[in-house]
Amino acid sequence: xxxxxxxxxxxxxxxxxxxxxxxxxxxxxxxxxxxxxxxxxxxxxxxxxxxxxxxxxxxxxxxxxxxxxxxxxxxxxxxxxxxxxxxxxxxxxxxxxxxxxxxxxxxxxxxxxxxxxxxxxxxxxxxxxxxxxxxxxxxxxxxxxxxxxxxxxxxxxxxxxxxxxxxxxxxxxxxxxxxxxxxxxxxxxxxxxxxxxxxxx
Length: 201
What we know:
Elements: H1 3-6, H2 10-28, H3 36-48, H4 51-59, H5 61-65, H6 68-80, H7 84-97, H8 101-116, H9 128-137, H10 147-165, H11 169-174, H12 182-188
Helix pairs in contact: 6-7, 7-8, 7-10
């Protein structure tokens, strides 16, 4: 790496890598209409979701993440934004917490290598301090190994992708009711949200 690039903040380098990845994807993406699998996925989602569910998701990100159907719909949105690795990492952390203690060290290393390590295949956007803290936690992997990193990604999704999700075509298609609660919910919501305490709806 040239000396000039080496002096850039890690966030700038991450943004540059994301842009490069997205441009490369778009250059190689065939211009075809949605395939049968995509249509089937949206149809299945619509069948599982009620207007009441959607209105509840609009009230808070916690409501969305505490719902299995909500996470499924949100993941569909994240795929369109090329950021589904955030949800995949969050779910991997939730599953990791339920692992048997004897299996935690191996699973923690897998999660770190796939999502946390610099230049990981599905690298999530973490600051260098959190990344290093998580790396050190691997030496004594326990249920809380990824707590800080998971919270950072949770907050990132809440403050960034979730706000766009609320006004996306996807959520509009699922919600025949007027969007009356979005702005008030956004104004009232503040502070950091904790991770889900359960993985079910």
